[in-house]
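**Polypeptide and fold**
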Amino acid sequence: MLVLVLVRYLPAEQPLAPSTIVLYNRKAPDSADLAKFYAQQRGIARDHLIALNCPVQEEISREEYDATIANPLRETFAKHRWWKLRESPEERKSVTATSIRFVAVMKGVPLKIRPSSTPYPGDEPAAGPVSSRNEASVDSELSVLGAFSSQISGAMSNPYFQSFRAIADFQNPALLLVCRLDAPTAATVRRMIADTIVAEKSGLWGRAYIDAAHNTSGGLQIGDEWLAEIQQQFHKVGVPVVYEDTPAIFPEAYPMSDCALYYGWYTSNVAGPFMRSDFRFATGAVAVHIHSFSASTLRDPNASWVGPLVSRGAAASLGNVYEPYLHFTTHLNTFNDRLLHGFTFAESAYMATPALSWMNVMVGDPLYRPYASWLQIDVIRDVGKSVSEWKMYHDFAVKNVARPVAEYRNMARQVASRAGNGAMLEDLGLIEAADGNFAVATGYFQQARACYTKRDDILRAVLEEADGWIKQEKPKRALDVVRSTLRIVPDAPAAVLLRKIEQDLTAPSAAPVLSPTLP
């Protein structure tokens, strides 16, 4: 049996459960049971489970939010003495100390607060698209509950944005990190909770898929910049990554196997490989698609993005309930960086989100730390071959990333070839292809498909190899590998993509260019 020893150290920290409360809705089916299940899994005390009597609809009015959620919760904080307050006639109440930092909102609690069309206390709109808005997500409003602000127009600046410290060490006691465990079904929420526990113990292992949009218009290029930076972050820690940077999204037939992380944009509703009935994320996966209304509902497994992503196996996602404007969405490069450094899902998301009292919603266990195992002394026994490949690449990368590029790649090639590590070989090929070294890249893809045993892995390597031959203006080599593969797996979903390449290469006016169906 293979035994892996990871000799990295996790700094001493306070337990998270005592600083966590769980909100549920007495009126909503399954909400109380889910709260109890989550608390049991995380060791959260029963007196930290807070029952609300609020509407069961996802969208509520500002009046309903104040009367059934915000005011009762402030009373609960006072009753349990979770906040230490400064009160004076001259100044607004302020939180000077707190014992609660995390809030888990369970399925059944309303999701969003609709725009108020009549004058409401604190609604003082100003010019501009942000200051004139008074709608928000429930969770984002709860994050500033301790601010005791009556302002509901516009957004509040997030003092935790771009931080790099645990929330327990953050000096603003009023801030709450609010995430929700919510999905189209209660069974999905239970699975999300269970998967985070499993992934924390064994690690989040698999491949990352990044679907950029190549959008350079009107300030939208920042989204692509985030995604390009994430690609480099993964290379530094040895997470294999497939980076698609054309305006098209990954096609439905694309063989997206072992998907542990997905970042993409910009399509209004779930599409691509996620539409296939056989698609499932890896256990504990984090999946995010940037769109203004990606979390407009969490009750439909086929509407928008967040609901479908968690329904297809993701454990955590991010979204927006109303138009947030791109700059005010969660900055995915910062979010991913903090996850990789071992912070919780909640800490990572709030460190990456510039605005509060706004449209953002974080869906997943706030305490989830998908990469905590990277930082611990951890002896893992009975590791399967596929998991050991991910670990091997990660351990090699973090040990050698500081070496000169040529030396690193030469060492990586030798290590991956000796071990027959298909994931590492494929990733090295993609790195070379991105640098324009297509002859070197095709050699890696050939090695990778020879090592792979799973059909989808082999097919993806074939697609990449064919692309490499086309880029070298060797269409016959591309046609040979495509046709030989089609003879073996003619009915695989990805065969559609191979046939498209064959069709393009054999057309009377065929030119040696990349098929638009390929990343």
